[in-house]
Amino acid sequence: MMSSLPLVVPRITAAAASKHHTRYFPPAAASSRLLSSSLYDEHRHQSTISSTSPPKLAYEFITEGRQVSNSQSPHHDNQDKQTIVFLHGLLGNGKNLRTHAKKLTKQLPHLSALLLDVRGHGGSSSRGHRHAKPHNFHSCVQDIFDTLIPLGLVGENSPLAICGHSLGGRIALQYTHNILLQLQQHKTQNDHDIQIPKQTWILDSVPGTPDPSVHQVLKAISSIPLPISCKSTLTETLMREYKMNKAIAMWIASNLKGKEDKNDEFEWVFDLDIANELVNNFADQNFAQMIHEITSGSTSTSSNNNDRALDSTIIQLVMAGRNKEWKDDIVSSLQSIPTFGESFHMHKLENAGHWVHVDAVNELTQLMVDGLSNMRR
């Protein structure tokens, strides 16, 4: 079963918990350090890309339960439409979240879903989507900015919400945090800026360093010589030589695409170098502190106007009940964040594995319907 995959399910050890400040509280000075960080300065300008430039990432729109043409945003036909951005997990693509997006937009017709392929994945790994280093979460966020701006999803048309699974949840958190820092440095926003989302949904992204199985899978994939002649042969090789179970081996084989010039040869749909670098960034993300800053607007340069703007900024963290990486100490650490139960909420889908949008798609959809049904800009 796909839902049993251990891929991109991070874990945290006692040492890692200390290292990454998983137990809240951070020192008061931490916020000001973040505001002056070079990482933020590097990505502070949302609007350096022209509105006439092509979108940076491969994408598709889902509205009212169906896929629509990518030629233009649904906002062009209906200014009342609100957008929710969906981000997939490691070695995946936007299509992984298509069923969930269809169910959600069918129940909430005021929402359109924008499914993105993050850098190095799916359509964004093709020749037309080259990505410069560094390959980190900040660069992934800049890619999103450089996709939203040409689509006209700025100002009042900025995405109402963002939702990410696993790796995508980490990027979604970084997206919201980067916009918060921009808002608090510049104090005001104009019609060309991307506004902070009202809600950020994080689907089974466990804080901390990745489980060793993630590196093992990436190492196995990296060792397979290209091109690959047959999907079934690859599956057998992964099971025999790398001791993978059949479900994982078949899922990996599903990430092959035919070479453009040779129909009988296959290559990966993702960029392994980018995937490896993104995984190496897991340890650099201070998950708990970012959640607190987003949900409280507590950085030292906050103005009164910004505080009011952030009152309705909510983070919804969804945990898979069958994911054993949700240890008691991790859960209690997150629950110690001061905004827990107010603007930071945690939900557990008891019967779901890591792929919550597959195992519990109806329950997840209803949870998000309840959270987004009355949400507007």
Précis, in short:
This protein is an alpha/beta fold and 377 residues long. It contains 15 helices and 12 strands. The longest helix is centred in the middle third of the chain and has 20 residues, at 167-186.
Question: How would you portray this structure in words?
Answer:
The protein is an alpha/beta fold and about 375 residues long. The protein contains 15 helices and 12 strands. Strands 3-2-5-4-6-7-11-12 form an 8-stranded mixed sheet, sandwiched between helices. Strands 1-8 form a two-stranded antiparallel ribbon. Helix 13 links the parallel strand 11 (about 315-320) and strand 12 (about 345-350). The longest helix has 20 residues, at about 165-185. It starts with 9 loop residues before the first strand and ends in a 5-residue tail after the last helix. Mean pLDDT is about 85; it is low at about 1-45 and about 305-310.
Structural class: alpha/beta
How much is the radius of gyration in Å? 20 Å
Number of strands: 12
* Strand order across the largest sheet: 3-2-5-4-6-7-11-12
Q: Please indicate the percent range of residues in DSSP E strands (runs of 2 or more).
A: 5-15%
> Would you tell me the overall average pLDDT?
83
Number of helices, counting only DSSP H or I runs of 4 residues or more: 15
The proportion of residues forming helix, as a percent range, comes to: 25-40%
